[in-house]
């Protein structure tokens, strides 16, 4: 069943066309990897799907909300890891505070960072911050999770862990789109790899 | 080392030759041209040239000494200190004789007698005849004058509220506006005030009598005595009378004064005041005076701290609004707000205070404290807004994008994520600004608010020295600003570990 459908996507930024004609689809429980060199347009495609960059042409069909994990995590620096996770459920989705806090602790524990719940973002390692960011994105219960360059801040041992984590999340009926230039990581987790080149998407496997 | 020594000796040679060049030929005399006619006034046709009866008295003294008079501009309130430093040979600017002046400076014989006069609105002529009728009312005067001493005394006796001005024009215009209910100043200024403001009248009974004298640096008694001889000669041969006639201020008090001065100048009483004010302070030691002034200084410090806190609160609120407008607002709003900020930052606070209090008086009469609060608050709001704008823009864009993907509204992002981080960045510069505001609050004395610095200058003028008042004032300012700095450091540390 198709969950995400991108057709003839065009994104322009500052008068320059970054994505010229991107089309692809992803179904429930599928992990799709967008592979390509830096500057190929992978991140921009993710940002356009998430609604952060305006779309000039084409269509994106996706169930909202969309979870997104950024390359540099972008945790809110003024609050603990725990609060980073429960903030949106409470303030955006009006989940009762206690329930949201309990669920947030559950998510952090499931991702292996339950013991870091009270830490501030600047006290977390790169891997810990990434897992908190994943928990924050999952807290709003998205059907689609977008991840931008997730291996950039991880040492090789941790990359295997992350691939396993993504596989597990996919089995829970989530669709995951990963943008990366790390071919080894792509092989380890992807159901399907798409090549991104000069703003175009091409099917590889 | 050699170079330094050479520089020093060159400077010494230059300095001594400069002194040699000017001492024999010139009589440097100090006065304040802001005081205006008939004392010392810049000639409207040639502002570098001064006219007035004090100018002519200076010419009289200079020609008697065989020198050329040269005018030195000095602010009226610092004229004693300038005389003591030797900035000029003699000060002549409607300077009042007082025990304090006599104890610290070489003072000439008096050359003019004046009466302190109560000026009121004509409609109040029957209500307010003497100071005791003005209980609980605001009465204006110039700071550091005999008239101020009279009002300070009347404050203790009758509960009037003295309001001090830096000039002699605004007391009368504020009396017209109803900001004060009476003015006490010497008859020369009072007559001028009544001429300029129809609807005011001078009460006939004088409150006190005082004298104008020349002041010289301590140690200049020989020159002072020569000047006394010249003044007495001019009293005898009618040259002083001619000067005061020319300026329209000659009256029957002067011949009586001159007769007494010529009879015995050495034991001349300071002032034949009905209240004999200021003598109590002047005769006390500096420490007794300090103890007597301490409560007034502490009270003024309360005004300073209350005004500073309220102004800062206003500056923070308005500054935050301006900053959000500049970061989130539409293009026309952004342009308007940055125009406001540039206008406030580009003009002196002193000018803004004058405009708010005196300039707007024709349309809206703000009470002095409110005008001071608005002036300081709006001025600092401009600076705060720039700090907040910078701090808001320093919060990483990535966090804002992350918040958007989570579904937060822009308002929620500002309140929950952006503003708290910006506030922490802004805290250190804000504390800095608050300490600056605490000290800038001294400027509001120009619009008649008596805060710590103003009270100190009144104290200093009264005892004729800045040393003890200056130290006390500095100690009180430090006692206010140091805990502030500590508090800010504590808050910053606390937040880092929050």
Oligomer designation:
heterodimer
- β content of chain B, as a range? 5-15%
- The value of Rg of chain A in angstroms is 17 Å
Overall spatial form of chain A: globular
Whole-number average pLDDT of chain A? 91
Helix tally of chain B? 19
Strand order of the largest sheet of chain A: 5-6-7-3-8-9
Tally the helices of chain A: what do you get?
Answer: 6
> Can you tell me the residue ranges of chain B where pLDDT is under 50 for at least 5 consecutive residues?
10-22, 272-282
Question: N- to C-terminal separation of chain A?
Answer: 19 Å
- In whole angstroms, the N-to-C terminal distance of chain B is 56 Å
Report the C-alpha radius of gyration of chain B, rounded. Answer: 28 Å
Q: Number of DSSP strands of chain A?
A: 9
In words, what does this structure look like?
The complex is a heterodimer of chains A (205) and B (498). In chain A, 34% of the residues lie in helices and 29% in strands. By secondary structure, chain A is α/β, with parallel strands linked by helices. In chain A, the strands form 2 sheets. A 6-stranded mixed beta sheet of chain A has the order 5-6-7-3-8-9, sandwiched between helices. In chain A, helix 5 (156-171) links the parallel strand 6 and strand 7 (175-180). The radius of gyration of chain A is 17 Å and the shape is globular. The mean pLDDT of chain A is 91. Chain B has 498 residues and is α/β, with parallel strands linked by helices. In chain B, 59% of the residues lie in helices and 12% in strands. Chain B contains 19 helices and 13 strands. Chain B has helices spanning 2-22, 53-65, 79-85, 99-104, 146-158, 170-177, 187-196, 221-236, 239-246, 253-263, 279-283, 286-328, 331-346, 349-357, 368-394, 397-405, 410-440, 452-463, 467-496; strands at residues 26-31, 41-43, 46-51, 68-73, 90-91, 106-107, 112-121, 138-142, 161-165, 182-186, 200-202, 208-212, 215-216. In chain B, the strands form 4 sheets. In chain B, strands 7, 8, 9, 10, 11 and 12 form a 6-stranded mixed beta sheet that branches. In chain B, strands 4-1-5 form a 3-stranded parallel beta sheet, with helices on both faces. Chain B has a two-stranded antiparallel sheet with strand order 2-3. In chain B, helix 5 (146-158) links the parallel strand 8 (138-142) and strand 9 (161-165). In chain B, helix 2 packs across helix 8 (221-236) and helix 16 (397-405) packs antiparallel against helix 17 (410-440). Chain B is elongated, with a radius of gyration of 28 Å. Residues 10-22 and 272-282 of chain B have low confidence and may be disordered.
């Amino acid at each position: 069943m198709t969950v995400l459908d991108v057709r003839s996507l065009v994104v322009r930024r500052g008068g320059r066309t970054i994505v010229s004609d991107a089309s692809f689809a992803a179904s429930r429980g599928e992990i799709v990897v967008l592979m390509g060199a830096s500057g190929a347009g992978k991140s921009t495609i993710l940002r356009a799907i998430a609604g952060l960059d305006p779309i000039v042409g084409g269509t994106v069909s996706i169930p909202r909300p969309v979870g997104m994990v950024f390359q540099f995590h972008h945790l809110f620096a003024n609050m603990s890891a725990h609060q980073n996770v429960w903030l949106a459920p409470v303030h955006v989705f009006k989940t009762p505070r206690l329930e949201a806090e309990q669920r947030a602790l559950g998510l952090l524990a499931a991702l292996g960072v339950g013991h870091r719940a009270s830490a501030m973002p600047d006290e977390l390692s790169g891997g810990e911050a990434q897992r908190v960011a994943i928990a924050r994105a999952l807290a709003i219960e998205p059907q689609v999770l977008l991840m931008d360059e997730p291996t950039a801040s991880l040492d090789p041992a941790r990359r295997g862990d992350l691939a396993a984590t993504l596989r597990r999340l996919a089995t829970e009926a989530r669709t995951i789109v990963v943008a990366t230039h790390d071919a080894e990581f792509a092989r380890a987790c992807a159901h399907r790899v798409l090549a991104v080149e000069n703003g175009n998407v091409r099917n590889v496997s | 080392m050699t170079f330094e020594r050479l520089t020093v000796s060159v400077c010494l040679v230059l300095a001594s030759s400069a002194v040699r060049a000017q001492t024999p030929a010139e009589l440097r005399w100090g006065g304040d041209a802001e005081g205006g006619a008939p004392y010392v006034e810049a000639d409207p046709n040639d502002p570098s040239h001064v006219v007035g009866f004090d100018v002519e008295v200076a010419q009289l003294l200079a020609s008697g000494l065989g020198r050329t008079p040269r005018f030195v501009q000095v602010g009226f309130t610092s004229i004693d200190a300038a005389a003591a430093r030797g900035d000029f040979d003699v000060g002549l600017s409607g300077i009042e004789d007082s025990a304090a002046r006599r104890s610290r400076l070489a003072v000439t014989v008096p050359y003019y007698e004046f009466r302190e006069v109560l000026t009121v609105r004509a409609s109040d002529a029957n209500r307010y005849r003497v100071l005791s009728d003005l209980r609980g009312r605001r009465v204006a005067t110039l700071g550091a004058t005999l008239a101020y001493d009279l009002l300070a005394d009347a404050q203790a006796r009758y509960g009037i509220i003295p309001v001090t001005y830096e000039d002699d024009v605004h007391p009368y215009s504020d009396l017209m506006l109803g900001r004060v209910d009476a003015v006490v100043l010497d008859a020369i200024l009072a007559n001028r005030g009544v001429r300029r403001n129809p609807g005011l009248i001078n009460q006939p009974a004088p409150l006190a009598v005082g004298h104008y004298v020349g002041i010289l640096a301590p140690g200049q008694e020989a020159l002072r005595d020569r000047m006394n001889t010249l003044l007495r000669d001019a009293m005898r041969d009618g040259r002083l009378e001619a000067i005061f006639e020319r300026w329209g201020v000659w009256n029957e008090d002067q011949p009586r004064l001159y007769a007494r001065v010529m009879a015995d100048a050495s034991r001349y009483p300071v002032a034949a005041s009905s209240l004999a004010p200021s003598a109590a302070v002047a005769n006390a030691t500096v420490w007794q005076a300090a103890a007597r002034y301490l409560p007034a200084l502490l009270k003024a410090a309360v005004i300073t701290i209350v005004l500073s806190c309220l102004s800062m609160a206003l500056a923070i609120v308005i500054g935050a609004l301006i900053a959000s407008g500049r970061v989130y607002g539409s293009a026309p709003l952004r342009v308007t707000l940055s125009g406001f900020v540039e206008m406030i930052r580009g003009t002196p606070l002193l000018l803004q205070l004058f405009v708010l209090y005196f300039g707007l008086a024709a349309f809206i009469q703000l009470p002095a404290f409110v005008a001071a609060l608005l002036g300081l608050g709006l001025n600092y709001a401009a600076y705060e807004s720039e700090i907040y704008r910078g701090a808001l823009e320093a919060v990483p864009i990535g966090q804002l994008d992350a918040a958007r993907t989570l579904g937060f509204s822009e308002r929620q992002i500002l309140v929950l994520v952006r503003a708290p981080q910006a506030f922490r960045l802004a805290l250190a510069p804000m504390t800095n600004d608050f300490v600056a505001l605490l000290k800038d609050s001294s400027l509001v004395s120009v619009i008649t608010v008596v805060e710590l610095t103003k009270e100190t200058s009144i104290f200093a003028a009264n005892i004729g020295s800045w040393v003890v008042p200056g130290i006390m004032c500095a100690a009180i300012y430090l006692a206010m600003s140091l805990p502030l700095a500590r508090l800010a450091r504590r808050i910053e540390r606390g937040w880092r570990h929050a």
